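Reminder to self: tokens first, then the designed residues, so the page reads top to bottom the way the pipeline ran.
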């Protein structure tokens, strides 16, 4: 028993000893650890120079970094430089640069002299920290300084070639557009505003229609003349007034989406290929909701770069996004804060809201709500598209809160700017420029007050100016009605309108100061109609103010001075319009340096006045590019014309059809007889036809069983009335055809040009010069209405027969001796002398005759020799 106690005591006494030894080891080790130098790591920098060699004054791309990536997307190595030594030995230091998380970054350098350059990248020593980590490297590690291998750059006198790029289309085209055809972005714009009546400056339509040529027409409801004795000359309803048709429509990436009227249920939207007229889908959204706006979002993240397109249907503070191509739902943004939408240059949508009384404001970003936190890998991709990092078909709640009742990180982060502004600014906000300013104005009959506050980074809400201008006495004396008219921050001008005097006044958006006015009075009928309602909207473009209205005169002013630069009168030659000599004009849009306008009325008299014009003018000079009377008449209460992919889509109130207007495809044929003989004239024939999608419509195909002829630009407006609206056939001129030939020796020759007739046919006389197979090439180079087309045919030219020549028979007497008395067994050959005028003999007969003569001579000689013997 005691032995066990001793043993147990011994074991117990050993425990403190072991602990003491362990602790002593730790205590000894601690000073050693603290005293150690931080770990170091040798680095391996790199430098790439592309292209190499390069021409002088051509840029090269430098790829700078080290072979060591970092652990998070926002991290990067800092302070890298590049040492450049030029051919004369001069050194230049580029940088410093910060890499991305891959360990590398890019920079651009342009050599300015011919010769050999040397370049070397330099990585400065830096430490691994919480905000700068690399896989498998401990915190505190020192990344040692180092330099890359030297790279030699050869700079030559001659420039190196770049990718040549591509021309704009010379033939009819449709989507999808190959991504390599980058230049085509100039002709493939969209129209994203579904319901606005205000005219717009629209980019991306550099082949906007130069004539009234129709691509296709689609009936959306009963329209046009009702017919019959009961209804007389009246037409079906076109929606003006108060029942507007085609009120909601957009064009997005070559797809036209529209509904025929918004107060008819079910509210069906139809999507068609704008360039072919092909229907893609027809759908009703939610509980008969209307389409609100579209979006083409340019996404550039560290995982992916792409464009995403959506159209939005709004309901109860929620935005529901749909795919334009399929009409399928993609995602929803719930509880969107109230305000006004605005786009940036990348197509991102923001909502702004400023309370001028309370002096508060915010700018909210849909994208920031959807994107996750700044450090996650998902932020490199656009989540609604679906990826390795995120699922599709989500709802993003702009009012989502935590358990504590505060907004979540994403919901809070969507408010990019939430700041105070000066209180009690008078009037209303009229323009907002992201990263620029908010411009406002207050108008009365005694004074005009202008103001602006900043949206520039770091100065949000700062008051830029407030200016007050004393109004002319006539404003109060005449009790004039004032309208804010139009503003352009790009052109730095805001314009107001006095209705009774029909005059404009200009104010600077940069300083708020009065600039000019009153401008000269416009025609008295321009008193009628309201700017805000869309009856007489104006537009500022390229330093010019454009104005029109019920008076039917288009005015172009210098927006900085108020001087009139030019006017255009939309004359009514037949006095159909009862209110003036000119047609009431609505400004639609400006694109491709052209301004498009159309006739409309608030509520048209029935039967409607005939010949209402659709007009295209040169926006700089006011010259008429084309005019189509009675072809497309606009609506005030429905949707105005829109443009995308350089094609106009509009509803015509004369027949309530939807028309697509633009440059169409053509087809040329050429024919000849299979062969001819050299020296004979032959005829080249063929035709040039309009093969636009609308020409395959059953009604048109029945009227034109051989196809619709192509006609000249000058006759296009009347021709379209004939083809699509059954008007009388005009005396139209055709198009020019160029004819060429490749002769049997492979030589090209221009034969000349000819013009088709109004049936599309052409004929041309051709005189081949040599025998053999000819290739005949017929080309229609195209016009403002059509893309060109080419066709070939072949003809064999046979040699001409050899020409006949007269042959005189030989009359020389054979050389013979006087015969003796012995009579030969055969008679002497007949030597009858030919008549004085010998008949023409062919070559073949002449040869036979010559042989016969030779035989006669031979026989005579034989007998003579025999006689001698």
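Designed residues (869 positions):
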């Amino acid at each position: 028993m005691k032995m066990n106690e001793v043993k147990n005591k011994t074991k117990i006494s050993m425990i403190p000893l072991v602990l003491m030894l362990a602790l002593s080891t730790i205590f000894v080790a601690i000073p050693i650890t603290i005293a150690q130098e931080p770990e170091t790591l040798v680095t391996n920098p790199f430098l790439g120079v592309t292209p190499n060699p390069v021409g002088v004054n051509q840029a090269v791309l430098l790829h700078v970094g080290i072979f060591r990536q970092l652990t998070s997307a926002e991290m990067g190595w800092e302070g890298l430089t590049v040492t450049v030594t030029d051919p004369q030995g001069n050194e230049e230091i580029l940088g410093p640069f910060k890499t991305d998380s891959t360990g590398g970054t890019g920079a651009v350098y342009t050599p300015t002299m011919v010769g050999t350059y040397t370049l070397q990248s330099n990585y400065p020593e830096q430490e691994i920290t919480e905000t700068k980590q690399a896989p498998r490297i401990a915190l505190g590690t020192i990344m040692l300084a180092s330099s890359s291998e030297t790279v030699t750059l050869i700079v030559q006198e001659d420039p190196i070639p770049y990718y040549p790029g591509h021309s704009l289309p010379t033939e009819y085209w449709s989507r999808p557009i190959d991504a390599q055809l980058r230049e085509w972005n100039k002709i493939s714009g969209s129209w994203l505003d579904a319901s606005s009546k205000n005219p717009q400056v629209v980019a991306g339509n550099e082949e906007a229609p130069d004539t009234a040529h129709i691509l296709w027409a689609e009936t959306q409801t009963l329209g046009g003349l009702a017919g019959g004795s009961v209804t007389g000359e009246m037409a079906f309803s076109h929606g003006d007034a108060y029942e507007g048709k085609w009120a909601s429509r957009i064009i997005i990436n070559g797809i036209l989406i529209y509904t025929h009227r918004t107060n008819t249920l079910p509210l069906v939207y139809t999507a068609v290929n704008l360039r072919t007229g092909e229907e893609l889908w027809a759908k009703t959204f939610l509980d008969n909701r209307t389409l609100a706006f579209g979006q083409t979002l340019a996404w550039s993240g560290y995982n992916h770069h792409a464009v995403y397109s959506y159209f939005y249907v709004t309901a109860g503070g929620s935005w529901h996004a749909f795919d334009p191509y399929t009409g399928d739902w993609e995602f929803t943004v719930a509880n969107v804060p109230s305000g006004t939408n605005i786009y940036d240059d990348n197509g991102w949508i923001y909502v702004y809201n400023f309370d001028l009384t309370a002096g508060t404001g915010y700018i909210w970003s849909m994208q920031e709500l959807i994107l996750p936190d700044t450090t996650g890998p998902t932020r490199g991709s656009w989540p609604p598209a679906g990826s390795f990092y995120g699922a599709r078909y989500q709802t993003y709640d702009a009012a989502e809160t935590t358990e504590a009742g505060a907004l979540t990180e994403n919901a809070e982060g969507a408010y990019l700017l939430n700041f105070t502004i000066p209180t009690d600014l008078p009037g209303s906000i009229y323009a907002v420029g992201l990263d620029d300013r908010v411009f406002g104005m207050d108008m009365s009959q005694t004074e005009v007050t202008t103001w602006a506050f900043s949206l520039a980074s770091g100065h949000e809400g700062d008051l830029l100016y407030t200016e007050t201008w004393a109004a002319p006495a006539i404003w109060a004396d005449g009790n004039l009605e004032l309208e804010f008219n139009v503003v352009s921050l790009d052109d730095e001008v805001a314009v107001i309108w006095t209705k009774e005097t029909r005059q404009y006044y200009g104010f600077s958006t940069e300083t708020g100061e009065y600039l000019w006015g009153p401008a000269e009075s416009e025609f008295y009928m321009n008193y009628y109609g309201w700017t805000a309602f869309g009856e007489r909207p104006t537009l500022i473009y390229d330093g010019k103010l454009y104005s029109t209205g019920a008076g039917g005169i288009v005015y172009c002013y210098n927006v900085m001075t108020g001087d009139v630069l030019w006017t255009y009168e939309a004359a009514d030659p037949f006095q159909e319009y009862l209110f003036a000599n000119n047609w009431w004009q609505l400004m639609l849009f400006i694109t491709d340096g052209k301004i498009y306008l159309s006739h409309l009325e608030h509520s048209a008299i029935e039967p409607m006045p005939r010949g209402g014009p659709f007009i295209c003018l040169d926006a700089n000079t006011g010259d008429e590019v084309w005019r189509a009377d009675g072809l497309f008449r606009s609506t005030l209460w429905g949707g105005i014309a829109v443009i995308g992919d350089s094609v106009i889509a509009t509803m015509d109130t004369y027949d309530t059809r939807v028309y697509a207007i633009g440059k169409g495809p053509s087809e040329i044929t050429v024919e000849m007889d299979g062969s001819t003989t050299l020296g004979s004239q032959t005829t080249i024939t063929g035709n040039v036809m309009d093969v636009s999608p609308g020409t395959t419509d059953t009604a048109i195909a029945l009227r034109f069983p051989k196809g619709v002829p192509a006609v000249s630009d000058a006759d296009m407006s009347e021709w379209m009335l004939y083809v699509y609206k059954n008007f009388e056939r005009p005396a139209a001129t055709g198009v020019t055809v160029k004819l060429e030939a490749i002769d049997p020796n492979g030589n090209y020759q221009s034969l000349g040009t000819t013009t088709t007739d109004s049936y599309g046919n052409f004929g041309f006389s051709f005189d081949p010069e040599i025998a053999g197979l000819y290739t005949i090439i017929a080309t229609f180079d195209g016009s403002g209405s059509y893309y060109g087309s080419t066709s070939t045919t072949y003809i064999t030219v046979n040699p001409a027969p050899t020409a006949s020549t007269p042959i005189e028979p030989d009359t020389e007497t054979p050389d013979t001796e006087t015969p003796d008395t012995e009579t030969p067994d055969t008679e002497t050959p007949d030597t009858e002398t030919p008549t004085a005028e010998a008949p023409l003999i062919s070559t073949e007969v002449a040869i036979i005759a010559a042989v016969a003569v030779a035989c006669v001579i031979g026989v005579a000689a034989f007998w003579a020799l025999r006689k001698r013997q």
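Residues 1-36 form one domain.
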